Amino acid sequence: MLAFPAALHLLLPAPPHHHHVAFALPHPAPPLHASLPCSRRARRRAPSPRHGVARASAAVAEEASSSGPAKFSVRIPVGDREILVETGHIGRQASASVMVTDGETILYCSVCLADTPNDPADFFPLSVHYQERLSAAGRTSGGFFKREGKTKDHEVLVCRLIDRPLRPTMPKGFYYETQILSWVFSYDGIHSPDCLAITAAGIAVALSEIPNKQTIAGVRIGLINDQFVVNPTTEQMENSELDLMMAGTDSAILMIEGYCDFLTEEKLLEAVEAGQVAIREICKAIDVLVQSCGKKKMVDAISLPPPELYRHVEDISGDELLKALQIKGKIPRRKALSALEDKVISILSEQGYVSKDGSSGVTESLADIVEDEDEDEIIVDGEVDEGDVHIKPVSRKPPPQGGKRSDGRSPWELRPINSQCGLLPRAHGSALFTRGETQSLAVVTLGGYQMAQRIDNLVDTEDSKASIFSMASVCGGCLALQDAGVPIKFPVAGIAMGLVLDTQEFGGDGSPLILSDITGAEDASGDMDLKIAGNESGISAFQMDIKVVGITLPVMEQAPFKLGTETAYSE
């Protein structure tokens, strides 16, 4: 069962007092005023005094508390200012909780784990929730209902910003349900909370028992007067040519997302490099904090099947898998792969390696492939669950070895493209964009200013001039706008790029392989999904998420951005 939200902990009795050493520090921290959703009785309580914090990123301050465990804090330089990170005084029943302050913007994040693990599956059971309370800015809802409503679209997007960089760092074989809660307690209208939410989640996970692989942090990069600015203010962003949100570790990049005013690939890579430098310094300071007050990692809770089992699956499938992957039609290829997977599972079940009904497999059969490994360390209850046996690692080998993709294309070749405008006679503009077996019908509807929907958000409250009903492709949307007679500066196009690292685990040399115009299967089995939009002069929008623990800047410089814009506009 998950722990209660940390804001409710104010209503619970505090744990017994523990004695800790207090450091005398010369710079006291300013008071933080958090709007907490608690009862009147709790609000009448006198706030606990704040403690001093060190000015250096590597100095962690610890202060004994009369009401519970010690409080730890650290100031981390980010750009031209510092952010304050505090832990240990709110949300003590959570696995970990932190309060991150930038100016008068305060964000609280907690991590909670279930008491028992879920059944084995091929994904990490992680849920992320981000909420912006209007009370954080001293406001109430402008609608008829004053109570905070459902999650807004902007909040969902921030949840995805938090999830994308965290998920690749989570260990395989860790099946404990994990919940991350992020609340904006205070907002000053100057310092944006979304980039703070990524860093706060990374710190909370690093402090918790989750045996994650590396510490992560997030920053926003702006471009003002040809100078890169780390975590620019809202006023600075009004004059910025770039809005780059990125996250990573001290040595690699995990996620980038944003838009720009048709910057060149070289300029965008320079921005990514500037962000990586800032992230590296934040991660170093987080590691110092973790050494001071981090919890012991649940390494013993990780349960994985032996590597020999994957090789056994490859031996069973043989050339049949390669033939199935080379089927060009999507539907027949899917049926062939599904039939082959059933065959592999059936053979493994007969040999005692897999149990479909949840009963234990034959331990003697497992020993045949485990060799000298300790079965108790890699097998749960003497069995390998069906969810752990899949053929995805095997499907990654043919592209780098044979040079041809599953549908017969070369790595840089595009699928056949066809487009048609004016399909819907009563719509203001419409276009059907077809690329391979993927189709997108884009529709444009024009309306006056009085028809605009008012969005009541905490951050960037403004009138929405567009109503978006679905995720239309960039190409189809651009065609539909031109069909409606909307004056645009120039047409744009978009494309999805992929990456296969071909790691040594699967017999490769580690050299990356860039794929243009990836399919759904390549997205699922590949290591990177990079979406790029723009024209021949530069990039206008981009979004990248990966499935490995980061990619380095030299890998990104090898071609993904440049090749992506060139192939996108060639459409």
- The CATH topology of the largest domain corresponds to Ribosomal Protein S5, domain 2
Using the alpha-carbon principal axes, give the shape.
globular
| Assigned CATH superfamily of the largest domain | GHMP Kinase, N-terminal domain
Spatially, the strands of the biggest sheet line up as: 9-8-10-11-22-21-19-20
The computed structural class is alpha+beta
Mean pLDDT figure? 77
Q: How many helices in DSSP terms?
A: 16
Assembly classification? single chain
CATH classification class of the largest domain:
Alpha Beta
Strand content: 25-35%
What's the number of extended β-strand segments? 22
State the helical fraction: 25-40%
From the N-terminal CA to the C-terminal CA, the straight-line distance is 51 Å
Number of domains: 3
- Assigned CATH architecture of the largest domain: 2-Layer Sandwich
Q: Which runs of at least 5 residues are low in confidence (pLDDT < 50)?
A: 1-57, 358-395, 464-472
Largest sheet: 8 strands, antiparallel
The rounded Rg comes to 26 Å
Provide an overview of this structure:
By secondary structure, the protein is an alpha+beta fold. The protein has three domains: about 5-10 and about 55-300, GHMP Kinase, N-terminal domain (Ribosomal Protein S5, domain 2, 2-Layer Sandwich); about 305-390, no CATH class; about 415-570, Ribosomal Protein S5, domain 2 (2-Layer Sandwich), CATH 3.30.230.70. Helices cover about 25% and strands about 25% of the residues. It contains 16 helices and 22 strands. It has helices spanning about 40-45, 155-165, 195-205, 235, 265-295, 305-315, 320-325, 330-350, 365-370, 375-380, 390-395, 400, 475-485, 520-525, 555, 560-570, and strands at about 60-65, 70-80, 80-85, 95-100, 105-115, 125-130, 175-185, 215-225, 225-230, 240-250, 255-265, 355, 385, 415-420, 430-435, 440-445, 455, 465, 495-500, 515, 530-535, 540-545. Helix 2 (about 155-165) crosses helix 3 (about 195-205) and helix 7 runs antiparallel to helix 8 (about 330-350). The longest helix has 29 residues, at about 265-295. It is globular. The model is unreliable at about 1-55, about 360-395 and about 465-470 (pLDDT under 50).
